[in-house]
Amino acid sequence: MTCEELRDEYELFALGLSEGAERRELESHLERRCPVCTPGVAAAMHTVAALALLAEPQPLPARLRKRLMAALGVDSPSWFSWPMLIPAALALAGLLLWVQARAGWQAAERALASSRAQVEQQAKELGQLRPVLAFLNQPGTKLVNFGAGPTGSILVNAREGVLLMASNLPALPAGRTYQMWLIPKGGAPQSAGLFQAAANGTALHARPGLVPAETSAVAISVEPEAGSTAPTTTPILVAPVTGF
Amino acid sequence: MLFLILSAILGPAESRRLIERLRARDAAALGELYDCYGAVVYAIILRIARDRATAEDLTQEVFLRVWNRIPTFDAERGSLSTWLLTIARHSAIDFLRSRGGKQERLNVSIDAMERPLAGGNAETELQTAGDAKRVRAAMDRLEPKHRQLLELAYFDGLSQSEMAEKLELPLGTVKTWVRSALRQLRENLQQPSGVNA
Ligand SMILES: [Zn+2]
């Protein structure tokens, strides 16, 4: 279809009403960064976003700003430490995996965000999550989600380290272990430690310490029990990490 | 009175600086973004989700999402407020649909929709007070049945078939009306506003 024929589709797309062949066609124009449709849809999204202004203005609860800033860890950056992180991360991983199993990553992300939202309110129950959230909110922490086969997420912070939370890991034969690797751009993989998955296929693995700036991916491979100096099998996961 | 508070002006230069600071993980910048758009985000979420506690949670979530995703946002290429309000609407509608037991989500690839796009006047930030008048005036000039459809789509996240079912109209009619409503809205918004300040 031509851009001209798609013109009326822009606002429908921005509203989420575009469907069928037209939608696929427009998506393909957007994918190839069509110089007509891309700015057209951008302008349509701007128009549609402006409809938000039709909502009756509401008094904004004052506590909400405080909660937001607290969730960013602005008020107390010092809770973060690796020894505290491990049990906390286990709890968070459990939460994420539970949500993920139910409703996919978007919901997981929401659960993560809303646990952050509850941090202040329910400091008691969620207190143990604070270190993970603090890690997540450290300046420069990058969250990379991965799916297909093993699913989960990797948190990378250049100064603090790498945290892996995964589910759906295959059970390993006796005498084998999982090994995590940091892969530098154009260089040899560096071991980032050995770990085992729980019986339900979940795992949590932390590699504290500076992360080399040239690291471009985090990988997991299956290795002999004592670990390897370089991967000896094709990694079951290679997650690109950038911008940490 | 509230509208005066809402009417923070975010010009292109301010917007760019704010984005740079967000990318540099300056938490105070998120506070400033919140001061500009928090009330609009909260209002639209509350209108969609119709529950104050939920609206508070989702509002916080939306700002944290912006905070976490700002590295993917290209300051040269889109409006922060458009992006923010798109995310806000999606979060609230997603909540509504998941609560209604509907597995299917908005008929959009959320990731694609939340990716800022280049062009047009789209990099202009929405000015909450001025633009609200303009949008309301543009909506007021639509035929009521057309306006109703846009509101059902925008605030209730209904698909065209769902609107047809709800309003007991043939699907073809809904599709025609939605298209002309959107075309009319676009034209109304492009016209110099007939609203007196
Ligand atoms: Zn095109």
Which molecules are bound besides the chains? zinc ion
How many domains of chain A? The number is: 2
Overall domain count of chain B: 2
Span from first to last CA of chain B?
A: 16 Å
Roughly what percent helix of chain B? 55-70%
- Give the total of beta strands of chain A: 8
Helix content of chain A: 40-55%
Low-confidence stretches of chain B: 1-9, 103-113, 116-122, 193-197
* Overall number of strands of chain B: 0
Shape of chain B: globular
Q: How many helices of chain B does DSSP assign?
A: 10
What do these coordinates show?
The complex is a heterodimer of chains A (about 240) and B (about 200). By secondary structure, chain A is of the alpha+beta class. Chain A folds into 2 domains: about 5-135, no CATH class; about 140-240, Sandwich (Immunoglobulin-like). Chain A has 8 helices and 8 strands. In chain A, helix 2 (about 10-15) packs across helix 4 and helix 5 packs antiparallel against helix 6. Residues about 75-85, about 95-110 and about 115-130 of chain A have low confidence and may be disordered. Mean pLDDT of chain B is about 80; it is low at about 1-10, about 105-115, about 115-120 and about 195. Chain B has about 200 residues and is mostly helical. Chain B contains 10 helices and no strands. In chain B, helix 4 crosses helix 5, helix 7 packs across helix 10 (about 170-190) and helix 8 (about 145-155) packs across helix 10 (about 170-190). Chain B has 2 domains: about 1-130, Rna Polymerase Sigma Factor, Chain: A (Orthogonal Bundle); about 130-195, Winged helix-like DNA-binding domain superfamily/Winged helix DNA-binding domain (Arc Repressor Mutant, subunit A, Orthogonal Bundle). Classes of the chains: A alpha+beta (about 240), B mainly alpha (about 200). Chains A and B meet through helix 2, helix 3, helix 4, helix 5 and helix 6 of A and helix 1, helix 3, helix 4, helix 5 and helix 6 of B. The complex binds zinc ion.
